[in-house]
């Protein structure tokens, strides 16, 4: 062996340990990696974007992120990405706003990976980045994109959404570096899960922030922010900028850099490659238009939006039974989580399909190659419209959108869209191309009660959605043809709805008041008559629709004479009714006295003679009209509200008594002996009754036992293979199982005689049984039967 010199790395000096070359290489690798991260950090802070910046490769990001982007086929950047990434990579807060489909997801996922990588984040450091999404489907989509571009990093990522096992999520939360979550489930873990802490959080991302607030998560979001450290970087992205989003930005962001806000407002919130149209369609014709549209676009991928879950399910179930010729899917919030994910993934992979959905699919979801977005029900505002049509024409692809509006919604919706710089064109649908399906829906509702039930719920849910809309100038429930709408759904009648009944009563009330105006006086011009009718309608009670929406200019332009006129009260309306005119004359005299301007009668009121005999009688009886008094005397009213009668019995002397009247024992029993004797007689009587009942019960039990025995024997004979034919062929005429005596329970004989042509049987039947006592012997010939009958007759004589 040769001694190794001091240059040999495998040998060591006296008293020292040998040096591992792998350890040395690891240290060198860490030094190189630390130097690269420091250089990357400096480059990101000093990076200034150029106008021609378009490639991800030109950004100061790590090689791991570049490889992930290239593997996922992300090469060129969109406008929002090119403007926001240089800012967010420097660690600044960003308030981003860009039209839907412009690539906001990568605009916040790339900074999340890069910031954690540059800060050498590891599993022991805990949660480093938190991404909050409004819906489960969008959270799943963000998580899938994160997995596709972050595969070369060593971070652990998790998905926390409602509808999954809470226990499994708790076990994994402590090991997560990046978390994608919905607000409700995230707050639940923050409050309940032990060990889940966000003290070291580096980045917070709020995607579709306006939708998070619109869905009622404002308090939840405020509670979430209270759990998070203030020394964090926050990225807030949304397709629309609202006042609530601005308030949220002031609470959660520090000196944010606004990206894409001015461009979005000036250029319009929808892409230029999107064709937008709307049609005027009556409410009861919407399903006809929808069916005709689907039948004429069988080779397209269509997304249909409706206002409620019940509508989506009703249309999906009925159209599936009618077989339009294209795959149908439905997505709404009442489905379970796994079903929603399955529908989402299936529609994503299909080329030709129709998806019926609520606004749960309106935000952020990236469905590839959607040709048409059809909005059957009008959106609640312009922002919702923007997000709905944003499911098509994403990135640089083209798409089309069609909006169905009822006549009362046209003016308000079009004006709201113009404020957002959205140019939507009006088109008409050819009546010859529209197919009516009302008869088919009626047949389905008649044949399947479940379809009828779904139709009723769809009817109620749609009208409730219109009733709860904030903008009453656009959504007018009183102007909808609700009865025809119920017929269009295939319902035999219109379901009764409380809020709808109030609206219809209000409408009928205003209509009847307009028709009940007094005729115009002679000698007045037409314009004077119209003025008077308008003043009469404006001076009606506060319950009318005209007063609620009367402009201030009209109110100020009223003449002074009308201002001084007496205000109509509920008593005026009561006495104007036809069936309540009992005190109308008396009340008119009182009103005439009140209208008198004399100072002497300002307080006092002179009494006048009145003929009120009928009225006083009615008032004393407690009724306001003869009609109500007559109704109160009906059998139904008396049975419900009248005094209940009671039954009386009469004794031999003709005295009336209650049915269960207690008798005085002093009158019935004179002494204790009589009481004991009466008790003994009662016991004897009851004992005799029990004996009689016992005899009957024993007879019934005996009869049941015989019946049971007969059935058992019959079953045994069948198991042995003995039948009536076998007995007859063998010559042995045993008792028949077909006839049974009801008196004694014994079997009576049945005579089945063989014909003379029949020969001897090839096999022998079972041996003849010994006849029971009281039964006649079996006979085989007609002569024997006649002889036996004569013997019976002689014995009876």
How do the helices and strands line up, and which of them pair or pack?
Layout: H1 21-46, H2 63-71, H3 79-88, E1 94-97, H4 104-118, E2 129-132, H5 136-149, E3 157-160, H6 166-173, E4 178-181, H7 183-192, E5 203-207, H8 209-214, H9 218-227, E6 233-238, H10 243-252, E7 257-259, H11 261-267, E8 274-280, H12 286-296, E9 301-305, H13 309-322, E10 328-331, H14 337-349, E11 353-357, E12 372-375, H15 382-389, E13 399-405, H16 410-419, E14 425-426, H17 438-447, H18 449-467, H19 482-488, H20 498-515, H21 526-538, H22 545-548, H23 552-556, H24 560-564, H25 570-576, H26 584-595, H27 613-621, H28 626-632, H29 635-641, E15 648-650, E16 656-658, H30 665-668, H31 672-720, H32 724-730, H33 782-796
Parallel strand pairs: 1-6, 1-7, 2-4, 2-5, 3-4, 5-6, 8-13, 8-14, 9-11, 9-12, 10-11, 12-13
Antiparallel strand pairs: 15-16
């Amino acid at each position: 062996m040769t001694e190794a010199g001091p240059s040999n790395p495998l040998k060591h000096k006296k008293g020292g340990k040998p040096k591992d070359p792998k350890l040395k290489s690891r240290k060198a690798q860490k030094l190189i990696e630390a130097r690269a991260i420091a250089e990357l950090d400096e480059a990101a802070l000093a990076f200034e974007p150029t106008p021609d910046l378009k490639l991800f490769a030109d950004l100061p990001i790590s090689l791991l992120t570049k490889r992930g982007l290239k593997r996922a086929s992300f090469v060129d950047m969109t406008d929002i990405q090119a403007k926001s990434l240089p800012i967010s990579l420097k660690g600044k807060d960003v308030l981003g706003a860009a039209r839907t489909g412009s690539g906001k997801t990568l605009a916040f996922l790339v900074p999340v990976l890069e910031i954690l990588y540059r800060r050498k984040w590891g599993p022991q450091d805990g949660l480093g980045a938190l991404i909050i999404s409004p819906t489960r489907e969008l959270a799943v989509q963000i998580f899938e994109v994160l997995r596709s571009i972050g595969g070369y990093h060593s971070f652990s990522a998790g998905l926390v959404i409602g509808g999954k096992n809470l226990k499994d999520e708790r076990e994994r939360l402590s090991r997560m570096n990046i978390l994608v979550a919905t607000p409700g489930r995230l707050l639940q873990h923050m409050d309940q899960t032990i060990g889940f802490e966000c003290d070291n959080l580096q980045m917070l991302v709020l995607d579709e922030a306006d939708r998070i607030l619109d869905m009622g998560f404002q308090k939840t979001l405020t509670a979430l922010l209270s759990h998070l450290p203030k020394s964090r970087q926050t990225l807030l992205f949304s397709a629309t900028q609202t006042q609530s989003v601005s308030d949220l930005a002031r609470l959660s962001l520090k000196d944010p850099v606004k990206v894409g806000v001015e461009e979005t407002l000036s250029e319009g919130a929808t892409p230029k490659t999107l064709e937008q149209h709307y049609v005027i369609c009556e409410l009861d014709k919407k399903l006809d238009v929808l069916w005709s549209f689907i039948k004429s676009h069988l080779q397209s991928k269509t997304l249909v939006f409706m206002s409620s879950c019940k509508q989506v399910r009703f249309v999906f179930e009925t159209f599936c039974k009618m077989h339009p010729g294209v795959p149908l899917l439905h997505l709404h919030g009442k489905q379970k989580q796994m079903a929603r994910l399955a529908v989402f993934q299936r529609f994503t992979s299909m080329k030709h399909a129709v998806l019926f959905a609520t606004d749960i699919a309106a935000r952020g979801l990236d469905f590839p190659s959607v040709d048409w977005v059809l909005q059957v029900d009008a959106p609640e505002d312009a922002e919702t419209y923007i997000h709905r049509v944003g499911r098509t024409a994403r990135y640089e692809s083209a798409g089309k959108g069609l909006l169905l509006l009822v006549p009362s919604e046209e003016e308000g919706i079009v004006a709201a869209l113009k404020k957002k710089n959205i140019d939507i064109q009006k088109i008409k649908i050819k009546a010859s191309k529209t197919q009516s399906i009302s008869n088919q829906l009626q047949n389905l509702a008649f044949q399947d009660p479940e379809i009828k039930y779904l139709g009723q719920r769809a009817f109620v849910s749609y009208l409730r959605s219109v009733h709860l809309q904030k903008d009453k100038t656009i959504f007018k429930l009183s102007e909808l043809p609700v009865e025809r709408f119920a017929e269009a759904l295939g319902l035999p009648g219109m379901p009764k709805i409380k809020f709808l009944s109030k609206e219809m009563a209000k409408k009928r009330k205003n209509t009847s008041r307009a028709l009940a105006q007094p005729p115009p006086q002679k000698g007045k011009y037409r314009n004077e008559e119209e003025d008077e009718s308008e003043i009469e309608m404006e001076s009606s009670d506060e319950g009318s629709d005209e007063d609620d929406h009367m402009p201030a200019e009209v109110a100020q332009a009223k003449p002074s004479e009308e201002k001084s006129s007496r205000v109509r009260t509920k008593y005026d309306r009561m006495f104007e009714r036809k069936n309540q005119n009992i005190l109308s004359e008396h009340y008119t005299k009182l009103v005439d006295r009140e209208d008198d301007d004399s100072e002497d009668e300002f307080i006092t009121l002179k009494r006048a003679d009145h003929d009120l005999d009928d009225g006083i009688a009615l008032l004393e009886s407690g009724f306001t009209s003869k009609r109500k008094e007559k109704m109160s005397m009906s059998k139904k009213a008396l049975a419900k509200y009248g005094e209940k009668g009671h039954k009386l019995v009469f004794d031999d002397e003709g005295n009336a008594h209650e049915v269960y009247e207690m008798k005085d024992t002093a009158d019935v029993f004179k002494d204790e002996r009589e009481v004991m004797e009466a008790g003994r007689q009662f016991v004897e009587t009851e004992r005799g009754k029990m004996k009689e009942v016992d005899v009957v019960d024993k007879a019934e039990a005996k009869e049941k036992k015989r019946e049971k025995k007969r059935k058992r024997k019959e079953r045994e004979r069948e198991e042995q293979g003995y039948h009536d034919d076998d007995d007859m062929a063998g010559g042995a005429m045993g008792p028949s199982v077909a006839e049974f005596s009801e008196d004694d329970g014994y079997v009576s004989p049945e005579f089945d005689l063989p014909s003379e042509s029949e020969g001897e049987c090839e096999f022998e039947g079972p041996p003849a049984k010994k006849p029971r006592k009281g039964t006649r012997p079996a006979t085989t010939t007609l002569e024997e039967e006649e002889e036996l009958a004569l013997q019976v007759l002689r014995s009876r004589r």
